[in-house]
């Protein structure tokens, strides 16, 4: 009996180490670019992660492992880097993919949600009819900073009656407290950057 | 080359999922909307499978996707065939050092950019976008990759508008599409 418990704990520890190893590898491929788009900002560039096939695959696998049994029916990706990570997750878990876009990009009838930026506001749009009441939704973007964009995304989905299960990002900029801005909605990230 | 002339049953289902929106972005244009295809998980998967089946044994080391709809279709192909993914973007979106290629639009000009160092000489590249119209954007993409020393093996799109003759503007590179729209 003790041997059985010991083996199971060993297997669990090994699985957690495997996740930790993959996350460390993913984190190491993300490039920090100072002063972009303006002085003082340390930009987290995921394009270098995309150049490492194993790291990119691990990124998607970690999200898929988490979401495949959660009955997610729609993955909503925020333009434009959410379009890179969202569709592979949607394909793997059998969900539809819905792009959330800047104004005037989607050709059909849309609903719009305005949200604040540091200076001024922006607008995010979703096609009418893409998401139905009762859909279980996952919101995907490459990074969460202040959380303004993700909040707007969640509002769009909730306005049509979907239930937002979680928000998923590769990187979280912890100091900007975006997680708090999401309120009760859970946030799952792979890399926390301080 | 167009897969739409083949007997593959997946093609007809894919074509039926694409929504045509009249007069977008301006009067007279019949816009081919792929977002409705993305709402059908089987049709979306079939779309990706058709491309992956074609490219998986061609030693492609880089898939370049054109912002923004090329970002939806390019990465799943790259992941499935073991290639890296390189986003080709509008100006000032990429944070690192870039090379830029200007190209003409119906009225005016636009610019496509790629990170320096993303692609190395002699890499074999695939360019992906949702649709080819006049071919101007794809031509700019080919130029960027060739300037970095890569060999563009093929361009791949879901949809071709053959009447606009974009196929002839690809610097001699082959084009593979799933459906045509006249």
TrEMBL record, chain A:
Pathway: Purine metabolism; AMP biosynthesis via salvage pathway; AMP from adenine: step 1/1. It comes from the Eukaryota. One of its GO terms (molecular function) is adenine phosphoribosyltransferase activity. It catalyses: AMP + diphosphate = 5-phospho-alpha-D-ribose 1-diphosphate + adenine. Its EC number is 2.4.2.7. Belongs to the purine/pyrimidine phosphoribosyltransferase family. Homodimer. PANTHER family: ADENINE PHOSPHORIBOSYLTRANSFERASE (PTHR11776), ADENINE PHOSPHORIBOSYLTRANSFERASE 1, CHLOROPLASTIC (PTHR11776:SF0). This is adenine phosphoribosyltransferase. It comes from Daucus carota subsp. sativus.
TrEMBL record, chain B:
GO terms for cellular component: cytosol. Signal peptide: none annotated. The keyword Nuclease does not apply. Its EC number is 2.4.2.7. Its main location: cytoplasm. Residues 38-164 form the Phosphoribosyltransferase domain. Pathway: Purine metabolism; AMP biosynthesis via salvage pathway; AMP from adenine: step 1/1. It is an enzyme of class 2 (transferase). GO terms for molecular function: adenine phosphoribosyltransferase activity. The keyword tRNA processing does not apply. It catalyses: AMP + diphosphate = 5-phospho-alpha-D-ribose 1-diphosphate + adenine. CDD domains: PRTases_typeI (cd06223). PANTHER family: ADENINE PHOSPHORIBOSYLTRANSFERASE, PHOSPHORIBOSYLTRANSFERASE DOMAIN-CONTAINING PROTEIN. Belongs to the purine/pyrimidine phosphoribosyltransferase family. Homodimer. This is adenine phosphoribosyltransferase. It comes from Daucus carota subsp. sativus.
